[in-house]
Amino acid sequence: MNHRERVLTALNHREPDRVPIDLGATIVTSIVKKTYIELKQHLGLPLEQITMLDYVQQLPYVDDALMERFDVDFRLVQLPAATSVGVDIFEEGGYYAFIDRWGSKLHMPKQGGLYFDWVDFPIKEASQSALDNYHWPRPDSDEVNAQLGQQAKALYETTDYALVGSAVIGGGIFEQPARVMGLQNFLMALISEPAFADRLMETITDIYIESCNKYLDQVGPYIQVFTFWDDLASQNGWMINPEIYRKRIKPNQKRLVEAIKKKTDAKLFYHSCGATRGLIPDLIEIGFDILNPVQVSAKGMDTRELKKDFGRDIVFWGGGVDTQHVLPFGKPQEVVDEVKRRIDDLAPGGGFVFAAVHNIQAFVPPENIVAAFDTALEYGKSPAFSK
Hints:
This protein has 387 residues and is of the alpha/beta class.
């Protein structure tokens, strides 16, 4: 099988010749800049001029040399992350800072900083007048989308990689309100100012639909996967009452999914960290095809049980190696054993894409990263995991 055939086989819940592998095809399955440089040096690969994909998470575009080293099956066709479009980084005391396209300020410490964090927000109160006066962001220009369409067409016609895209120009429908007014304030608004919270989420959804339509008019025929992210869970369970999700947030997610499906046949990828087991039936009902990152160390996220209960209806993308404990702190052989265990649990019958749980972080030993992806390449071949 070539890369695209392998991916489509797995995404359609059939067993491919080997487990598809992802590193760097999304902003939630990549590697931070510091560790990326260390990994390339460890492998003896030339260090190219680094271009940043996502300033908040400090993610570089992963170059072809590293993707080819691990035989990654995907390539990215994506609008730059919302916070890196025309970003102007400046200094503010002991921090680097910038204003994102939604008008929020972010900081990263100059000394030892690993990420940018939101520190100031444009919406100061949960009122209708605040929304009336807010400067809403606009989708990227037709020229940008046309250029991405040309790139997608060229990749589709001249390579056999599976192509991954997204045009959601911010966080999710639950996440983004927290990024424009602060999480605590938004959680309070959901209860105390429901009309405000609903209008905020509905307007964000409208903007996302417009952005996706513009992007998919150009890119939709060529991509195999379309990504969306909306964190709703923590380490131990839901971040909010699930009934609030089903009544207030889920209808907007469904509206976005329906709009996307009118423009592309790509499989829909949903990212939420944490203990998402209780969310999975809702995602299947809405029409999502893929769950990421499969945080195996969170409550209720046993990979064997997830596969048994939901493996016929949703693809698991991630969960390939525990990134809270094993990948950063284990020995290479422990990483090998962990990867084999997750492949045994998730790969039989298809419906699995190997990736680390979320982005590979700073201070992860390069030897462990190599052990993980080399094991996935070799052990992920069908004879190894077929039972």
